[in-house]
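Throughout our pipeline, every protein is held as a single compact record rather than as scattered files. This encoding replaces a full spatial description with a residue-level series of whole-number codes. The remainder of this section carries one protein's record, kept here as part of the documentation.
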Amino acid sequence: MTISVDILEKIVREAGSVAMSYFNNLNNVGVVKKSPRDLVTDADVAVEKFLKEALNKAYPEYGFWGEESGQSDNQTNRWIVDPIDGTHSFAKGQYFWSISVALEIDGDLVAGSVFAPALDDLYLAIKGQGATKNGKAISVSPETSLADSMIATGFACLRSYLVENNLKRFCRIAEKTTGQRRFGSAAMDLCLVADGQVDAFWEQELNLYDVAAGALIAKEAGGTITDFKGTDGVFPKQILATNGGIFKELLELM
């Protein structure tokens, strides 16, 4: 398996241009509800269509799993795509949304890119080769004290009306930290851990396409990726990403 960083970046940036053509003309973008609290826009569909075609042309040997179009025949080796992670933010004209593209081979995440077109920030990682932001190497923060940490989370569980939600956990953790953020894109949250802008991120009831690329980027930047019990791996229904230095202290509050 050989993935060209240049080709992957080119495809993701071109997908960003597609997304921005809609973002710059939001008054004319169609929005429908997939469920009472879950949106899909014309941009989600257009960006995913572009990525599916571009990735298949560049790498026809791999299958495809997109949030909007579902799974192709080959799911052993596949691209995992969220065309717009943070659709609510996108639809409101906010800048914090992203395009997430990951490559999984035999259950192993080997490449990933997260691009925030409105911010012009592109994160990329190849397994075993570290992580970059706009071409420069990045790493997680050196923070070792939860009391001095900034943490991020999300509330996908509330969109699903789950009784087992994130509210009590958030309150428990928030009062132990110096800053809390809720940005609205799990893919970007994971990249902020990778970039040292936040020290940890957790969320529950996500899907693999929300976190696959960001989790690889955070891990390649030196972070830890586990579930809420500390088991290593990418578990979208319970994902905890940290800089490593506050992992044990935060895990006790999970």
